[in-house]
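Researcher: Go.
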Amino acid sequence: MKSYRKLGLACLAWLVLAGAALAGENESLDLLTPAQEYAQQALPLMLAENAGVVRANAAPAVAAQPEFDPPWLTGSNMHLVLGLATLVGAAATAISPPSDDNTTGPRNRNGFHGTAGKVTGVLAAATVASGFVVHWNDFHLEDGWTDPDNLHVILGATGASMLGYAVLKSAGSSTKTSHAALAELGALGMLIGVKLTW
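Model: Structure:
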């Protein structure tokens, strides 16, 4: 249980760092010193004095613009990677069999199937949280329920909730439980939500 807390704290720390990077990415303060302000005001006057020196048919020099390279770690990219990792984890959990077939006694909940399910549940929660942080302004009911962004939010959040409930239902039971259909339906909802926005 302690390892899942550490994984959850690591995901939360990653979300906070990406959110801080995202916040600093688009907001730049345009503060000018008094000398810069004076230079901006005096620049037209200086150019007007030198107008007689410039030939009338001379083309102005155009500076080459550097190519824009977007940062690779953005909140949107983090949400994308978390979502795809959730789908891969759900597929790995679905194709892996439970660790034992014991239906009467305590079962092993820490095999590959159980661990992959728990990790997938944490990834689903992190995906939804990062989506709410990064894309909070993409959900508008004025656009209708059939808007792809609205359907992405609805299917993704509902699918993650179903997947998380199935993981908690199975992890909290010492006997075999029926949870596969709910988890797979949740993963399918998330997959359709991803497909709608691509």
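Model: Helices lie at 2-26, 34-49, 75-95, 112-134, 148-171, 180-197.
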